[in-house]
Amino acid sequence: MLSQPFIILMADDDIEDLELMEEAIRDYVGDLHFHKVHNGRAVLEYLESKTDDHLPCLIVLDYNMPELNGSQVLSELSKKPRYNHIPKIIFSTSNAPTHVQECKENGAIDYFVKPTNMRDLKMVVQKLMSYCMI
Questions:
Q1: Domain extents for the chain?
Q2: Does this model's pTM top 0.70?
């Protein structure tokens, strides 16, 4: 377990998915600040409200969200150098190759299809946390 808390920002319009991911991450890490939003616009608003020393260590985005989808959020974030150092991940039910390619071109360092069981979710969380702890 880490000795200091860190911040993870997750955006998903599915409340159950947010809660499952938070539970799995807390089981893995323990001490963290998990900020949840329900649409792409809220991601941008949250980040703009934070000082550089309070930015998240990881941003996890669903692809299919209202207002701005995950790829559109990535595109907006890529326009601001202050976010370049933050790993950005897509976590979605969509496994369409065009979505994967589009998101990676817009700045996602990885793309995960949402798993259907807790064992696989824990494996995804382990990979996510490796990005956050770099």
A1: 6-132
A2: yes
